[in-house]
From TrEMBL, chain A:
<dbReference type="InterPro" id="IPR013563">
    <property type="entry name" value="Oligopep_ABC_C"/>
</dbReference>
<dbReference type="InterPro" id="IPR003439">
    <property type="entry name" value="ABC_transporter-like_ATP-bd"/>
</dbReference>
<dbReference type="GO" id="GO:0016887">
    <property type="term" value="F:ATP hydrolysis activity"/>
</dbReference>
<dbReference type="Pfam" id="PF08352">
    <property type="entry name" value="oligo_HPY"/>
</dbReference>
<dbReference type="Pfam" id="PF00005">
    <property type="entry name" value="ABC_tran"/>
</dbReference>
<dbReference type="InterPro" id="IPR050319">
    <property type="entry name" value="ABC_transp_ATP-bind"/>
</dbReference>
<protein>
    <submittedName>
        <fullName>Oligopeptide transport system ATP-binding protein</fullName>
    </submittedName>
</protein>
<dbReference type="InterPro" id="IPR027417">
    <property type="entry name" value="P-loop_NTPase"/>
</dbReference>
<dbReference type="GO" id="GO:0005524">
    <property type="term" value="F:ATP binding"/>
</dbReference>
From TrEMBL, chain B:
<dbReference type="GO" id="GO:0016887">
    <property type="term" value="F:ATP hydrolysis activity"/>
</dbReference>
<dbReference type="InterPro" id="IPR027417">
    <property type="entry name" value="P-loop_NTPase"/>
</dbReference>
<dbReference type="InterPro" id="IPR050388">
    <property type="entry name" value="ABC_Ni/Peptide_Import"/>
</dbReference>
<keyword id="KW-0547">Nucleotide-binding</keyword>
<dbReference type="GO" id="GO:0005886">
    <property type="term" value="C:plasma membrane"/>
</dbReference>
<dbReference type="InterPro" id="IPR003593">
    <property type="entry name" value="AAA+_ATPase"/>
</dbReference>
<dbReference type="GO" id="GO:0015833">
    <property type="term" value="P:peptide transport"/>
</dbReference>
<keyword id="KW-0472">Membrane</keyword>
<dbReference type="Pfam" id="PF00005">
    <property type="entry name" value="ABC_tran"/>
</dbReference>
């Protein structure tokens, strides 16, 4: 799908800090977990933006802020030009209809006491204008069919379904309000390998049919490459590189992206002895106390003095065709994921 | 090897003829309220010193239960081993009296688990838990055992081991916790290490560190490694040979290069075909249809037949034996020749 057209989602300088308190009576703020710290990007209609990064990089917090489940500390999130960061009440309800979520764990994200019909139909309780009461059952059955489940199973409970089927139920619920954007937070990582491809194919088919735009958060880099038009790489609350899938995977410019890509095991044993692998030392620093300047510098083999003093901005660097946040960005083909 | 007297465990240095560890026609079943679950139905594989065997399969394929049977950590009952042998240096562990079995467990065959946080005891320091290996099995004093624990933490490359030996598991990151598990597992120089999904809960960058560490430890001590995983990438990276499990059986075994080049079982082929590939972007991924079998209600004949594109009538009635595909590989498919020819294109 082409990346043309006006953005449907605009994120600018988005910041989400979780305050750290000390003391019981007189709670004093002693710091903050800087989960998301100045992230900007656009998402266009019908496009898939993949977000990758290690655990703790802020990708799930980003998803929650986009869903308006968390209020951003600062910055702006606009859907179709309408600000949601400070929206409240009826206005918030209205914009939320347009952005829905598919969760990671299909075992815990479905209420075991509700039938599948009630789970998928619940969004209509909150947004009755989408489907009048008498029409809801038919709609739910349609949705079941769309995601490849038997419409007659509308009265079954989640435990009667397998993991892959439950994820389909979660997807049907996400589709119920006919949103334009779906945020998928690790939608296949809890599924068996032989089931993952089925769900990825379903998401792609739904995108074509309904013109959906996806934010696709995952740690499986090969799945992200397959489904995404553009990919953003996050590290410790910052977007360190963003570009088309080809730019990120074949011409990564940020050292972190290169290390991340080289760490992915390639499912082909031929030539494994010769493969280049950048093994990062240590763990990511704490987001409560990130390093000064470039946040990656403590694990970076290119780090110089300037990296500690000056924060590199996410911008197009000489010799690279896409934005990266590194003073010494240069493209380097690491591996083919 | 049929003796009536109790078998005796051979020494570490015993000159080995035959493999270090051989699982032979192992069956494991569980008695549940809904009926008997046959988790493992005749699994055989072998492991030599210094070798890495990958056991590949999805949840419910029986890969972890086989490993637990080797370790002797299955709860029996409900588990039962109606048939099979697990020969360690030629001695059947299943017929060994419990006191001798305990000599093997943790000392000569040890295991690491997927979730290090729940495998470690949260109320003891990591140093205490590592040094316990030496206190219990070697009768060392606390002081000497703690010293050994620090050495081991250094060996698995935990920074500032001396300062961190008195920290608790929650004070470590996921990758560091897995290193502590590895330290405990290699403490007594085991000859076989079983790693059950050791990196599944970890990020790829940390996964690379842990796999590198395991490979290095293996080189140093020439231990045999059984790597249980569902990740085709990890397998391709480190394994010497592979056993693919499905529905409690081994459906294909082969050397790692052979299996990726030309799988001879439709399930293996399906898994490899469903990996997203750069040149196929924009196309639909190949997906194995259907879902893994219910262990309480296994399909007749070949367990894979409801999902198999190569199915013929006899697959529904006759369970295929492990046919010989080559000197070092086998496939449990009546129509392996067609699969094999297709996968070579």
């Amino acid at each position: 799908m082409t990346a043309a057209g006006e953005p449907i989602l605009e994120v600018r300088d988005l910041v989400k800090h979780f305050p750290l308190h000390q003391g019981i009576l007189l709670k004093k703020q002693v710091g903050a977990i800087k989960a998301v710290d100045g992230v900007s990007f656009d998402l266009r209609r019908g496009e898939t933006l993949g977000i990758v990064g290690e655990s703790g990089c802020g990708k799930s917090t980003l998803a929650k802020v986009l869903m308006a489940l968390e209020r951003p500390t600062s910055g702006s999130v606009k859907i179709n030009g309408r600000e949601i960061a400070n929206a409240r009440g009826a206005e918030l309800k209205k914009v939320r209809r347009n952005i829905q979520m598919v969760m990671q764990d299909p075992y815990t994200s479905l209420n075991p006491r509700m039938t599948v019909g009630d789970i998928i139909g619940e969004p209509y309780e909150i947004h009755p204008e989408v489907a009048p009461k008498g029409d809801r059952r038919r709609r739910v059955q349609e949705l079941l069919e769309v995601v490849g489940l038997n419409p007659e199973h509308v009265n079954r409970y989640p435990h009667q379904f397998s993991g892959g089927q439950r994820q389909r139920i979660g997807i049907a619920r996400g589709l119920a309000l006919q949103p334009e954007i779906i945020v998928c937070d690790e939608p296949v990582s809890a599924l068996d390998v032989s089931i993952q491809a089925q769900v990825v194919n379903l998401l792609e088919r739904l995108q074509r049919e309904f013109g959906l735009a996806y934010i696709f958060i995952a740690h499986d880099l090969s799945v992200v490459r397959h489904i995404s038009d553009r990919v953003g790489v996050m590290y410790l609350g910052k977007m360190v590189e963003i570009g088309t899938d080809v730019e990120i995977y074949d011409r990564p410019a940020h050292p972190y992206t290169q290390a991340l890509l080289s760490a992915v095991p390639v499912p082909d044993p031929d030539g494994r002895e010769r493969r280049e692998r950048i093994v990062l030392q240590g763990d990511p620093p704490s987001p409560a106390n990130p390093p000064s300047g470039c946040r990656f510098r403590t694990r970076c083999w290119k780090a110089q003095d300037i990296c500690a003093q000056q924060e590199p901005l996410l911008q197009i660097r000489p010799g690279t065709g896409h934005a990266s946040a590194c003073h010494f960005a240069e493209t380097h083909d690491v591996v083919h994921v | 090897m049929k003796k009536t007297s109790t078998p005796v465990l051979p020494a570490r240095t015993a000159p080995g003829d035959g493999p270090l560890l051989a699982v032979d026609d192992l069956h494991v079943e569980f008695a549940t309220r809904q009926g008997v679950v046959k988790a493992v139905n005749g699994v055989s594989y072998s492991l030599n010193p210094g070798e890495t065997l990958a056991v590949l399969g999805e949840s419910g394929s029986g890969k972890s239960v086989t490993a637990q049977a080797i370790m002797g950590i299955l709860d029996m009952p409900p588990a039962r081993i109606p048939r099979g042998e697990i020969r360690f240096r030629g001695t059947d562990l299943l017929r060994l009296p419990e006191d001798q079995r305990a000599q093997v467990r943790g000392q000569r065959i040890s295991m690491i688990f997927q979730d290090a946080l729940s495998a470690l005891n949260p109320v003891f320091t990591v140093g205490w838990q590592i040094s316990e290996m030496f206190r219990v099995h070697r009768g060392m004093s606390r002081r000497d055992a703690t010293k050994k624990a620090v050495e081991l933490m250094d060996r698995v490359r935990i920074p500032a081991a001396r300062q961190r030996v008195n920290d608790y598991p929650h004070q470590f990151s996921g990758g560091m916790r897995q290193r502590i598990m590895i330290a405990m597992a290699i403490a007594l120089d085991p000859e076989v290490l079983i790693a059950d999904e050791p990196t599944t809960a970890l990020d790829v960058t940390v996964q690379a560190q842990i796999m590198e560490l395991l490979a290095e430890l293996q080189r140093e001590s020439n231990m045999g490694l059984i790597l249980i995983t569902h990740d085709l990438g990890v397998v391709a990276d480190v394994a010497d040979k592979i056993a693919v499990m499905y529905g409690g059986r081994i459906v294909e075994n082969a050397l790692v290069h052979d299996i990726y080049r030309s799988p001879a079982h439709p399930y293996t082929k399906g898994l490899l075909d469903s990996i997203p590939r750069v040149d196929l972007k924009g196309q639909e991924l190949y997906a194995i249809k259907g879902m893994p079998p219910n262990l309480l209600d296994m399909p007749q004949g070949c367990a894979f037949h409801p999902r198999c594109p190569y199915r013929q009538d006899d697959c529904v009635t006759d369970a295929p034996p492990l046919y010989e595909v080559g000197p070092t590989r086998g496939s449990a498919c009546h129509y392996w020749r067609e699969v094999f020819d297709d996968s070579r294109r």
